[in-house]
Amino acid sequence: MERLDEAAAYSLPGPGVTRLYASEEHRRLLPLLSSWMRCAGLEPELDAVGNLVGRCPRALAGEPALILGSHQDSVIEGGKYDGMLGVAMPLLALEALREEGREPNCAVEVVAFGDEEGVRFPFTLVGSRALAGTLDPKVLGGEDEEGVTLREALARLGADTSRLAEVTRDPERVLGYVEVHIEQGPVLENEGLALGVVTALTGIERHRVRVSGKADHAGTTPMEDRRDALVGASAMVLEADSLLRRLGSLVGVIGQLSVRPGAVNVIPSEVEFTLELRSPEPEKRLAGRREILAALADIAKERGLEMTTGLNYEAEGVACAEWLIQALEQACRQEGQPTRRLFSGAGHDGLAMHDLTDIGMLFLRCRDGLSHHPDEAITADDAEAGTRVIMRLLDNMAGTP
Question: What residues contact residue 41 under an 8 Å CB cut-off, 6+ apart?
Fold first, then answer.
């Protein structure tokens, strides 16, 4: 818990934790994470996309390794446990084993992924996609809101993007991927359980919607003659929310909205907003997409507005490997921890790592199911239970099933 408090200090000023990918806060955090890795007996290395990778001697020698880890970045004003828990906990588990004179029964790597949240740049899962070999090098030219390219940001971080091809892993040298994460939901707390074993990760898609009207003088243009992009976009937001409540097996959010020209006495001419949809069932997500976008187009037509949409991110849901589910359940039983299987409604690096290897995931109870918020909280007892389960998993892990 002290380590997680310490990591949370590497943040922009303000509530919670704001540590964006390839930012100055990210750069300043790396020496701390490197010190944790060395305490765990791992050799740290910053790769071409800003992942900090710690390898044990057996992994450095080329043995197939179990990869554990999670992400370093946060949302804006997020919590201190989302992502960082899955970096700190396996490192502490390895350090504890080392202090007891024990070694894991397989080669181990711990990866602190640079990007999972997708807040700063218009893409996400950059670090895990690079490991899986599915990252399009063109993303290095993508820009943040200040016009800084990812390539430039990574250079400031100290990453050598010319070595991008070296990040991709050989599937034959990876045993599997395991991530520890707060649940980000209320199921475990409602059932009085500290830990849960994940069965699958949700599918996610993100759209950018542009609504165009006509700017004009707010004092001289009659109400009936206006083509107000913001009024139209507001109707779209309400309609999308109404449909999401009705459709079922689908959740979504409009989380960003920008207005132009943004003057107090000018009718808005253009609005851009994001639309994110999530569902474990691809057919329901796609059907929901069609219905929502059609409804938004109807609103634009009724109000004399133009609307364009673009799909800028899509990841299908993936299943966790049964052998890793059972391995995590066995480790929980050995540590006297009752557990249950549950689905993840959030996306994680496992969505990308699934293209490389089998994935498994352990959830930790969080207070009120709250996440992406400064009040995100876990208990020390639950953190200890999770650490001991990971220690037991490493004791049990002798190779692929």
Answer: 56, 57, 94, 95, 98
CATH number at residue 251: 3.30.70.360
DSSP letters for 134-179: ---GGGGG-B-TTS-BHHHHHHHHT--GGGGGGGPPPGGGEEEEEE
132 with 14, same domain: the answer is: yes
Rounded alpha-carbon distances, angstroms, from residue 130 to 22, 170, 211: 15, 12, 34
166-172 long-range contacts, CB within 8 A, separation 24+: 166/47, 166/48, 167/47, 167/48, 167/49, 167/51, 167/130, 167/131, 168/130, 168/131, 168/132, 168/133, 169/131, 169/132, 169/133, 169/356, 171/356, 171/357, 172/64
Q: Are residues 16 and 145 in the same domain?
A: yes
- Domain boundary residue, one of 257, 288, 315: 315
Q: What is the residue-level pLDDT of the chain in tens, covering all 401 positions? A: 999 999 999 999 999 999 999 999 999 999 999 999 999 999 999 999 999 999 999 999 999 999 999 999 999 999 999 999 999 999 999 999 999 999 999 999 999 999 999 999 988 999 999 999 999 999 999 999 999 999 999 999 999 999 999 999 999 999 999 999 999 999 999 999 999 999 999 888 999 999 999 999 999 999 999 999 999 999 999 999 999 999 877 899 999 999 999 999 999 999 999 999 998 788 889 999 999 999 999 999 999 999 999 998 887 889 999 999 999 999 999 999 999 999 898 889 999 999 999 999 999 999 999 999 999 999 999 999 999 999 999 999 865 55
372 is in an annotated binding site: yes
| Amino acid letter, 290 | R
What is the CATH number for 176?
A: 3.40.630.10
Q: Which domain holds residue 372?
A: 2-200+317-396
Q: How many domains does the chain have?
A: 2
Q: Is 71 annotated as a binding residue?
A: yes
Residue 117 is assigned to a ligand binding site: yes
208 marked as part of a ligand binding site: no
Could you check whether the bond before residue 44 is cis, i.e. omega within 30 degrees of 0?
A: no
Does 303 reside within a domain?
A: yes
pTM score? 0.82
Alpha helices in 303-379 (DSSP H): 322-334, 350-353
> 206 labelled as ligand-binding?
yes
Domain check: are 300 and 327 in the same one?
no
| 181 annotated to a ligand binding site | yes
